[in-house]
Amino acid sequence: xxxxxxxxxxxxxxxxxxxxxxxxxxxxxxxxxxxxxxxxxxxxxxxxxxxxxxxxxxxxxxxxxxxxxxxxxxxxxxxxxxxxxxxxxxxxxxxxxxxxxxxxxxxxxxxxxxxxxxxxxxxxxxxxxxxxxxxxxxxxxxxxxxxxxxxxxxxxxxxxxxxxxxxxxxxxxxxxxxxxxxxxxxxxxxxxxxxxxxxxxxxxxxxxxxxxxxxxxxxxxxxxxxxxxxxxxxxxxxxxxxxxxxxxxxx
Length: 251
Ligand SMILES: Nc1ncnc2c1ncn2[C@@H]1O[C@H](COP(=O)(O)OP(=O)(O)OP(=O)(O)O)[C@@H](O)[C@H]1O
Hints:
single chain; alpha/beta; binds adenosine-5'-triphosphate; Rossmann fold; 6-stranded mixed sheet
């Protein structure tokens, strides 16, 4: 495997034995993930399983207690400036300047990248053209969510991390956002989700995370076969012993 990899392009994500401890709490307990360029990779788990912490370490936003991460062969900490140019991140809560309009925020984010999408294209992609002049604070929750997706994609990143992509969106808006993600054929997408229909539709492969560890990994069909389940939700319950909407109760 190693010799073959020396001659192939770098993995989009190569995370090795990631551990994150907060005092006595181990949030991530030895997660290794390999994602190939162009793959859409889903991370599924109950609340508090360690999904966000894992992607924050991949994005260079949180330093692992142990382990290492490479994004397109680069270290998100030591090669921070380069990684910023190739990685787009949409986290659960967008901390954006509320008094700027949607267009101003898009323009601000465009200025961070060498080859950004056109402003009108970005707004149209998430169907916010008619909200271009609306201040961020005055957008609805779903519109804020869609704007944060546009901002994650504005720099035409090679790797995109999306945390709870369509939570809070109505069914029509979810489908629109799915269409946008499906159009990203060149990019590698890491998708954290609770929504089984979303994962099944969009993801080539999925990792099930429970209590900071990967307990199963494969294509949605492989996971269903492994659990002898009809649906991904049933497979999740069978493999974790939990419902996907369970809360560990300590947050
Ligand atoms: N800064 C922190 N300090 C202490 N504990 C933390 C911190 N951040 C996260 N945790 C804990 O680590 C665990 C994993 O959290 P994380 O947010 O990664 O889970 P998650 O799978 O993304 O959950 P959710 O689906 O609710 O977003 C949780 O028990 C959480 O309470």
